[in-house]
Design goal:
By secondary structure, this protein is an alpha+beta fold. It has 2 domains: 36 residues, no CATH class; 144 residues, Chorismate lyase-like (Chorismate lyase). It has 5 helices and 12 strands. The radius of gyration is 21 Å and the shape is elongated. The protein starts with 7 loop residues before the first helix and ends in a 5-residue tail after the last helix.
Length: 240
Amino acid sequence: MENYHASRNTVRSAIKELTISGLVHTLHGKGTFATERVSPIVVSLTTDPQTGGGGGQGFIYTHEGPKALRIDTASELPRVEIQKASNTVSDFLGIPVGTYVISRHEQRFVDGRPWALQTSFYPRSLYQSAPRLLDVDPIQEGTSAYLAECGIRQTGYRDAIQVRSPNPSEVDLFDLPSDGRVQVFEVFRTAYDQIHNPIHLTVTVYRADKNRFVIDIGDAPASDRLQGLFRADHDGTVPR
């Protein structure tokens, strides 16, 4: 107000416009600060037919190129439970509400920073063929590979993606602003076996401002795709 001889309402309106544009953010009781430019992690939702990587399950891209997803060794072990299927789990797995399922929940980190929350639900009937689903230790080779060893081969999956406001636990984990201006992506992945039966539902939550998804159809060179995404992020053609 002093520097520009503007009224209080004008300054408030200007800060509101800057906030809407994502250029500043306000911390209650502390003030208004310039927002740090975010370099997103690019998550491939398409499985690489040559390497088997991707699909959002262990294969991500950064400015330096593809890298393996690392679960921080300092993080807690997966939380493994037997619970009753909710309406959502019932719909995706095609089972009655209240049917017992095995759930495996874990926090995922990249370079020591919270990256995603992931919960997978498996029909309890799979336990007879794949007993390690109830182990509290991580399944190092990945659950899809383990299920394949048990004769339950994943042949396809379907993703459903929604954007929503974070809940309090997600705000704490991802260190999100409490005003709700940063949303989260929630990806519902239903995997199917060779006879099209749903074998698991994996629900993954990412903070929306630090992740970007890629889906490849046909012959799409990875290098060209990634260069375009990172270039768009820095020249302002993609909103932050």
